[in-house]
Write a structure and sequence with these properties.
It is a single chain. The chain is an alpha/beta fold. It folds into 2 domains: 221 residues, Alpha-Beta Complex (Spore Coat Polysaccharide Biosynthesis Protein SpsA, Chain A); 70 residues. Helix content is 49%, strand content 15%. An 8-stranded mixed beta sheet has the order 7-5-6-4-1-2-3-8, sandwiched between helices. Helix 2 links the parallel strand 2 and strand 3. Helix 9 runs antiparallel to helix 10. The longest helix has 34 residues. It binds uridine-5'-diphosphate (UDP) and magnesium ion.
Length: 321
Amino acid sequence: MVEKKIFMNKLTIVIPAFNEQEVLKTTLVTLLQIEDDLISESKIAEDSNILVVDDGSKDNTWEILRELNSENYRFTGIKFSRNFGHQDALVAGMSEAIETSDMIVTIDADLQDNPNVIKIMVDRFNEGNEVVYGVRNNREQDTWFKRTTAQGYYRILNILGVKVVPNHADFRLMSKRAVETLLEYKERNLFLRGIIPMLGYKSVKVYYKRTPRLAGESKYPLKKMLAFAWDGITSLTIAPVRAILILGILFSLFGMIAFVYSVIVKLIGKANEGWSSLMISIWIIGGFQMISLGVIGEYIGKVTTEVKHRPRYTIEERIGK
Ligand code: UDP
Ligand code: MG
């Protein structure tokens, strides 16, 4: 009897990790189990693997991975020469993975995103979707501050015309082809959440509950989060600069009207005294000009970064390749 060989898609789970020694082992073992389940259900290829991107960790993240790799070849990794940031780690992991894989899942190292959802993602992929977004349907785990700022941020992005999937972080599945298209976007400042919806292709959302971090602390302090949020806006839209232009025109119009008004008042004969209003105007307009320069400076800064064409990241070492 001739055995019928069924072609199975290979899955790689990509995990960005920055000082994650407290959680890495548990996370990797859990994820391998998920893959094993999928393999036994004949949904993914037997050589499906896990790829950790060590984003310049200073702790034992890399050593833990080396140990796990000696136990199972399906644990692999790349290590950056320094900390390049979460987004670049994701890009590096995905571009490594598509060399051999047909679908790539990205998930954080702290297992805040329910790993069982990966099984649903694979089903959606097999139904013909090329991008599967993990969307959380609860935010109770976040502080009031994070929740409110996140909501406000989505609203601002929306007003500015940037399309993102609300409550979706970087937990998603992408097909090899979708990742290849993503890598055609050559900008250094990559805000994945804004760019991936631009790729097109058939996509779908799956909903899940987000849980607290397994252990360790957030690698996204407020400062980093604000920088990330601002990058998201300025790398995807020039609306802030346009808004400044429009505001500038409005201010000038207002100035002209005020000028005409004061001339008329003078001609009628009433003295136009009003030092305080004058001073306030100067402060407001001065402040407005400084903000404008700041925003424009930000864009010029971005242009400078982009024209340098520096590498997004540097890989120093590999495990399992
Ligand atoms: N991370 C990274 N580089 C960084 C910061 C974070 O690779 O510079 C990784 C981190 O190890 C984790 C993921 O990005 O796997 C998300 O970070 P974290 O869970 O700390 O963020 P939060 O969930 O608190 O927003
Ligand atoms: Mg987290």
